[in-house]
Write a structure and sequence with these properties.
alpha/beta, D-Maltodextrin-Binding Protein, domain 2, five-stranded mixed β-sheet, 10 helices, 13 strands
């Protein structure tokens, strides 16, 4: 009887190890989004698939609200989160992170001619994604006092309101801003001011989050990340999305 139970447990572990459940928020191109066919796409998706191939595992993706990702991971609803997550001290107290896979910075995006060289935030309505480090920056950074922070479920909605003139600017990751501005329909907008790279808010870059108790998965993901960097696969993924 015990032998049967042991074999069942080993079989379950084998099946579980062959599939990695990733949670993400698929409205953040070029990192994660749904393509025209409704399939997950983006840098983070390609990266996760590359890691899964090296681990001989199947990637399964789940599209969830951004501010629910870390809580869901803490409750073990998913194995990992890959969603352009800044590795910060506050988040590292809640979940474990892999090695950094992409440097991050934030920028303001506004209609051309709205600001002269920098964003004067006082009494300005600035759109951010709810639960993001950009939101935390606007709320907590002393130099941002006087700003009207407008949270959105997705950056797509924030950019839509920017086009309509309902908000004055959007604070977003540079790579996301750059990708959005490349669309011909967004030619009347621009990045305003310098990149913001404050480590206190934006950490050291992006990492994949796992539950603190899942040390094996953390080790495996880091090992696979080193492998794809060594083979050049990582660089090919980056070059696919950035000029």
């Amino acid at each position: 009887m015990w032998r049967v139970l042991l074999l069942c447990c080993l079989s379950f572990q084998s099946v579980a190890a062959s599939r990695i459940q990733f949670a993400t928020e698929a409205s953040y191109p070029p990192f994660e989004y749904l393509d025209d066919a409704g399939q997950f796409a983006g840098l983070d998706i390609d990266l996760a698939n590359a890691l899964c191939r090296h681990l001989k595992a199947e990637c399964v993706f789940h599209n969830k609200a951004f501010d629910s990702l870390i809580p869901a991971l803490q409750f073990r609803n998913y194995d990992a989160v890959i969603a352009a997550l800044n590795v910060t001290e506050a988040r590292s107290a809640l979940v474990a992170f892999t090695d950094i896979y992409y440097d991050s910075s934030a920028v303001f995006v506004a209609k051309k001619g709205t600001y002269d060289g920098a964003v004067n935030v006082k009494n300005q309505a600035i759109g951010v994604q709810n639960g993001s480090q950009q939101q935390r920056y606007l709320v907590e950074e002393p130099s941002m006092q006087g700003v009207l922070t407008v949270p959105y479920a997705t950056y797509a909605k924030a950019f839509a309101d920017l086009r309509l003139g309902d908000i004055d600017a959007v604070l977003v990751d540079f790579a996301v801003a750059d990708a959005w501005l490349q669309a011909p329909t967004n030619s009347e907008f621009e990045i305003v001011g310098k990149k913001i790279t404050d480590v206190e808010y934006f950490g050291l870059g992006y990492g994949i989050a796992v539950n603190k108790s899942n040390k094996r998965l953390l080790r495996d993901l880091n090992k696979a990340l080193k492998q794809i960097k060594a083979t050049g696969e990582y660089d090919r993924i980056i070059m696919k999305y950035f000029r």
